[in-house]
Amino acid sequence: MMSDTETTVRSLYAALERGDAAAALALFDPHIKWTEAKSSPYYQGTVEGVDAVVKTVLEPIANDFDKFVIEPVQFVTESDRCAAFGLYSGPVRATGRHLEADFVHLWTVRDGRLTSFRQYTDGAAWIEAFAKR
Fold first, then answer.
1. Secondary structure element (H or E) that encloses residue 21, with its range
2. Cα(125)–Cα(96) distance, integer angstroms
3. Of 2, 16, 60, 85, which is least surrounded by CB within 10 A?
4. Which segments of the chain have a pLDDT < 70?
5. Are 103 and 87 in contact (CB under 8 A)?
6. What strand order describes the sheet that includes 113-121?
7. Per DSSP, what are the bridge partners of residue 87?
8. Tens of pLDDT along 31-57?
9. What was the pLDDT predicted at 61?
10. What angle do CA 110, 115, 120 make, to 5 degrees?
11. From the CA atom positions of the chain, what is the Rg in Å?
12. Whole-prediction pTM value?
C-alpha cells in the first residue's frame, strides 16, 4: 500500500504531466522551501513560498522550453520524506538543443502538503543543452 507521502508526491507529478498548474500549486505548502541544484540554471539558493517558486523556477522553465517533461521512474519513501528518481527532457528554445538530464527530487510532506524540495541533477547535461554555439 502506498503511503500518503508518496501519494502526494505522485499527485504533483501527475498534475504537472497533464498541465494542471492549479492542482500542482495547490499541493504546495504556502511556505514551501525550494532548493534547486547549484548546477541548475534556476539555482538561487533556497527560496521560500509558492510565489518565489513560480517566479524563480516554474515561469523560467515555461519560457525556456516548448515542452518540458519531468518523468519520475522510481520513488523511495520513508515517513514524511519521498525521493523521486527520474529524467528531465525537452527542447531548449534558445538553442534548439534537447535536454536529457537525470534527477533526484527529495520531498518533505506534512499534512498532505509539500513543505520542502531539494533537487539533484546532471549539471553537464543542462550546460550542454543551454550552450549557444
1. helix 21-26
2. 14
3. 2
4. none
5. yes
6. 46-48, 28-35, 113-121, 98-110, 81-91, 69-78
7. 71, 102
8. 999 999 999 999 999 999 999 999 999
9. 97
10. 125
11. 14
12. 0.95
Residues 95 and 85: their CA atoms lie apart, in Å, by 26
pLDDT score recorded for residue 132: 85
Q: How far, in Å, CA of 126 to CA of 97, rounded? A: 10
| 70-74 contacts, C-beta under 8 A, 24 or more apart | 70/13, 70/16, 70/17, 70/103, 72/10, 72/13, 72/105
Q: 103: which 3 cell numbers?
A: 534527477
Per-residue confidence (pLDDT) for residue 101, from 0 to 100? 98
Residues in CB range of 55: below 8 A, 6 or more apart: none
Rounded to whole angstroms, how far apart are CA atoms 132 and 125? 14
Structural domain boundaries of the chain? Answer: 4-130
The domain over range 4-130 is classified in CATH as 2.40.50.140: no
DSSP letter string, 88-130 = EEEEBTTT-PEEEEEEEEEEEEETTEEEEEEEEE-HHHHHHHH
Predicted pLDDT of residue 2: 75
pLDDT in tens, 97-108: 999 999 999 999
